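Title: [Solved] RNase J family beta-CASP ribonuclease 3D structure

Original question kept below for reference.
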Amino acid sequence: MEKVNIFALGGQDENGKNCYVLDYDDSLYIVNAGVKIPINMSNGVDTLIPDFSFLEKNKNKIQGVFITDIKNETFSALPWLIMKVPNITIYTSFLNKQIINERLSKYNIKSQSYKVQSITKREKIGNLYVQPFSLPGTAPGNLGFDFITPNGDYVFMMNYSEGDLGIFGKAWFIHLPKLFNKRKINALITDAGKSKQPTRSIDRYFIPKSINKVFQQTNKNNKIIVGAYSEDMVNLHQILELATKYNRPVIPYGKAYSDLLFLTKQIQEKLNPEFKYPVIQDHKSISKYDNAVVLVTGSVERLYQRFLRISQNEDLHLKISRNDSVIMMAPPVNGLESLAAITLDEIAKKTRNITEILESELFICRPTRLDIYNLTKVLKPSVLIPVQGLYRYLVDAISYIEQDKELSKTVKSIILQNGKIAHFANGKLLSQNGKIKEVGDTIIDGFGVGDISTEVLAEREVLGRDGVVIINSLYSPKTKQIVGQLHINYIGVIDQNEQEQINKLIKDSLINIIDSNEFNTMREMNEKVRKTIRKKIFKLTDKDPMVAFTLTMV
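Solution (posted by the thread starter after getting help):
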């Protein structure tokens, strides 16, 4: 009997730390090994990675690690995986191979401990065949992987769109069955972390008009400073096109993006030599070019800190002048809204010419619910497993597909929490009751693998997802009234300019609950307040924070 198990060591009901395992007849195939950045890096916590204990115990069964793309939440835990499980082979695209080798070279890991290999065609690895296929992504070289067994295929697809993104890849779902030789798809494991978007992701592949306007209106003797995440190459590429159009030199200011740009430029010159890049200058020469487009890039957790340093005149090379224009096309993740607001305020003290691009305006190269539905309709997998996102978005992807009653008859959709096992026998799903015990977070501090209490971990988990609202006041049991001022604190929930509206919502809700209900215990009241406020904040902001409500007796 052919046995296949699929489970996640990370990435389910969380943003980041993506790591999935396919167990084929006791041989392990690992798909991705990413990190998750904690929102608050106090207590020495720099990075969270999956718990690799299971892989360490079963290292002799590992056939390879398959990396789909070069986002931090996809591949940045590789150094620690190699430290735990040496002598592994990493399979990925040619461009990804260069980035992975460069990243691993920063760690004191012997080159004999790993091998990074480009995979361009179907290969037999262990006891099954693995077929890579190209997908459009935020950088060239994005791959999907098809694990081929005698009883059917298991397909993994992460961080992709459908359509033509030029140098960043092109793919149409309707052509995929030919790629798979119309073999039966036992399971489709697909990214669903951005399923809430109502349209196809490719429909938003354009530069917002406000960015064009900045290029049109900024004086030719003043800089245009663009803030973006290093891995967001597909949107930055459109900035390069605008720089060429308006005859402005470009200065990349961030090593990770500079390295990616160098490699991408080489690929572009081979595939499309007619494409005109702007003149690219070194970041040390920023002061020599008053009309430059300066691309300030950084990782998700570092970018705003870097801009804050620039706005406070603490940067060696870049100064913001009064007539410069600043474009911030890096929507802050949950928990960084306050830092982002403070940073933009500091920039405003230097220049009034600030354009902030919201997430709803920016192209994100990840499938939406409509993309996932169209893909499922074409591939017709026996089982659909949405991955790589918060639980409610995984549910959203399934709910959208289940609206098609005919499709639901042939496709069974399931959600796996981290560690839960989908068990297949001869290509058919038998159960999802099994569980891997070694699942959780491993802490990485500035010196390596660290340790920290579970209480802090729990706090980081909440902050990293949707934040916390803390409400407290004084309460008189004699009068049964709140007698003190209501104190409301937000951690990683909303922007400062929205707090007044949410404050009013909380106060009105609290008054209504107290006036219209009777409670036998304070615990009942506390529970009612927390649930009500949580629901109302979710309806208003699409965030589901933890609500801590405390009344101090006087």
